């Protein structure tokens, strides 16, 4: 059986069917139907946040945030993330300015941000890599000093709490992905969290073509999600505690049995103040040669880890200029995310651990 880096959680089919029956009863398929409204309310309560709106994917969430905040010119961002973090800026005609990452947690190095600020800088867009918090205090301090907006790409961070509150509550806007590969998913989907109600209302308007009935206010897009996706979210939210608990078990076994005299793994700041979601299990190998060898050995037995994240985004071929980020460029050659999902068979996990340790 093929083992991928993740496997989407599917709830008992009867539970999903019960939610789907509600759609047949209302005949309401999309356009902010009752299931989606209910899911938004439950997510507000679960996360203990003020404002959240569900959209059709995490990339649209980023673009809506950028648009609603009125960003222009340059945006300081991380080179170590999924490509959507960078391409969302490019699609909105902004110039990404890359700041290198920290070796210990692979997040943007907040100590390098201030030196990258120019008169053209309008915001900071940082990623909570693998769901581990950026230095949110330092970033907030810099943003206030220079009157910059802060967007957090929190695609990996659903269910993570930091200093007693949801990690999604930090920054001017936080975006999340509810893609099928995520800890919590709606098959396809995402969300935007925003503390400022005026900006939040603008985001909600923009995601629905920019009009309410026959009144047109702004040039919007179609960022809506359907009742079928909301149905999956409503069911999956009930299973989230078990999903995270199952992931934690797999995570901890890797941590006990992999050879960390040779390997490295990301470490969070203030870990005692962090409630984690166990979204990924990344390892950093000694060199790219070892990384590729282990990938080949695992692939030979139908096990498929992923190079999350490769390449370093500052080296994307469609960028206009190259901005050097040596730490990210180095780590991206050596990082590998191992299979992690709640029902990963213990014998399969032991095979993975054995192959990795034997090929270091």
TrEMBL record:
| Keywords of the record | Aminotransferase, Pyridoxal phosphate, Transferase
Which Pfam families would you find in this protein's record?
A: DegT_DnrJ_EryC1 (PF01041)
What InterPro entries does UniProt report for this protein, alphabetically?
A: DegT/StrS_aminotransferase (IPR000653), PyrdxlP-dep_Trfase (IPR015424), PyrdxlP-dep_Trfase_major (IPR015421)
Secretion signal span:
none
A molecular function GO annotation: transaminase activity
PANTHER family, per the entry: PROTEIN RV3402C, TRANSAMINASE
Q: Record's family?
A: Belongs to the DegT/DnrJ/EryC1 family.
Name assigned to this protein: DegT/DnrJ/EryC1/StrS family aminotransferase
Organism, by scientific name, is Lacihabitans lacunae
Q: What is the lineage of its organism?
A: Bacteria, Pseudomonadati, Bacteroidota, Cytophagia, Cytophagales
């Amino acid at each position: 059986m093929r083992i991928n880096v993740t496997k989407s959680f599917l709830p008992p089919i009867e539970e999903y069917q019960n939610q789907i029956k509600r759609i047949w009863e209302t005949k309401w398929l999309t356009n902010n139907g009752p299931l989606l409204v209910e899911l938004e309310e439950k997510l507000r309560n679960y996360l203990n946040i003020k404002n959240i709106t569900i959209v059709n994917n995490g990339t649209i969430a980023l673009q809506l945030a950028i648009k609603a905040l009125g960003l222009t010119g340059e945006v300081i961002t991380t080179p170590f993330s999924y490509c959507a973090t960078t391409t969302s800026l490019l699609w909105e005609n902004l110039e990404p300015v890359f700041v290198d990452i920290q070796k210990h947690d692979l997040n943007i190095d907040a100590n390098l941000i201030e030196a990258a600020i120019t008169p053209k800088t309008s915001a900071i867009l940082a990623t909570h890599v693998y769901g581990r918090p950026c230095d949110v205090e330092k970033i907030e301090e810099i943003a206030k000093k220079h009157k910059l907006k802060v967007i957090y790409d929190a695609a990996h961070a659903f269910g993570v709490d930091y200093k007693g509150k949801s990690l999604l509550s930090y920054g001017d806007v936080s975006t999340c992905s509810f893609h099928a590969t995520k800890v919590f998913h709606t098959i396809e989907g995402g969300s935007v969290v925003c503390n400022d109600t005026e900006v939040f209302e603008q985001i909600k308007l923009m995601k629905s073509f920019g009009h309410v009935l026959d009144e047109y206010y702004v040039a919007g897009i179609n960022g809506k999600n359907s009742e079928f996706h909301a149905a999956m979210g409503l069911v999956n939210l009930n299973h989230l505690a078990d999903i995270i608990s199952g992931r934690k078990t797999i995570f901890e076994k890797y941590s006990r049995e992999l050879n960390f005299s040779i390997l490295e793994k990301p470490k969070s700041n203030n870990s005692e103040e962090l409630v984690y979601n166990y979204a990924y299990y990344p390892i950093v190998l000694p060199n790219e040669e070892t990384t590729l060898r282990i990938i080949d050995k695992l692939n030979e037995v139908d096990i498929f880890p992923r190079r999350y994240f490769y390449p370093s985004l500052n080296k994307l071929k469609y960028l206009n200029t190259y901005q050097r980020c040596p730490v990210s460029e180095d780590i991206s050659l050596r990082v590998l995310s191992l299979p992690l999902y709640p029902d990963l068979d213990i014998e399969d996990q032991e095979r993975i651990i054995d192959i990795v340790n034997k090929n270091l």
